[in-house]
Design a protein that fits this description.
Elements: E1 8-17, E2 21-27, E3 39-42, E4 45-55, E5 58-65, H1 67-72, E6 87-92, E7 111-121, E8 124-130, H2 133-136, E9 144-147, E10 150-158, E11 161-166, H3 168-172, E12 184-189, H4 191-206
Antiparallel strand pairs: 1-2, 1-6, 2-5, 3-4, 3-6, 4-5, 7-8, 7-12, 8-11, 9-10, 9-12, 10-11
Length: 208
């Protein structure tokens, strides 16, 4: 479980195919405190730590990634996918007593969207995203959404497109200062919206 508040920006120092895929991610976390089997949100994808250590004062951890996960997220994107040198948003899993600064995030990506437009407006950055209908039906103005692991508030919604306004603090402390038009992003819809949709579908079937 996560909050969508990014605590570090990691650097993919190695990415290779073994049986599935494996990534080595350099970070500022104290990796001696990270237990093997711990969950870390990597650009919004909940992944399990299989190894960790320190090389030349640089902390790192490794994760295995299945082909299914690669195909369903931005990890396998041809243009902007995970490669050596890419920076990704990181968040360690929530502990009892931690501040819930964003919203409840599971790290289970529902699908991907595309960055359609980037506009600089009075110091902030307005970004337009496009999603398919299956995700779009859960998008609501002023609602919460997780994109690349970041808890964000939706500004405007129009058909399959919606806008997010990024303040300088968010850009300076995440990888959102490195985005490109056409880039694929990982999206997790608000878990409450999922439950409401499930309840409405169940009630509809019970009345049929």
């Amino acid at each position: 479980m996560f909050t969508g508040i990014i605590s570090d920006v990691g650097l993919i120092s190695d990415f290779k195919k073994i049986e599935d895929f494996q990534a080595k991610i350099s970070c500022n976390f104290n990796c001696e405190e990270i237990n093997l089997g711990s969950s870390i949100s990597c650009d919004g994808v909940c992944l399990t730590v299989i190894d960790r250590g320190i090389d030349k004062n640089q902390n790192w951890f490794k994760v295995d990634i299945s082909e299914e996960t690669v195909s369903k997220t931005n990890i396998g994107d041809d243009r902007f996918g995970w490669v050596k040198g890419k920076r990704i948003n990181l968040e360690r899993s929530l502990k009892i007593g931690d501040e819930l600064g964003g919203h409840i995030v599971t790290g289970h990506v529902d699908g991907t969207g595309i960055i359609k437009e980037i506009k600089e407006i009075k110091g902030s950055t307005d970004v337009t995203f496009e999603v398919n209908h299956e995700i779009g039906k859960f998008i609501a103005q002023k609602g919460a959404i997780t994109i690349n692991g970041t808890s964000l508030t939706i500004n405007k919604v129009k058909d399959k497109e919606f806008n997010i306004n990024f303040i300088p603090h968010t850009k300076n402390n995440t990888n959102w200062n490195r985005i490109n038009v056409g880039e694929k992003v990982n999206i997790e819809i608000d878990i409450l919206a999922r439950y409401v949709d499930r309840i409405l579908k169940t009630e509809k079937r019970s009345h049929e």
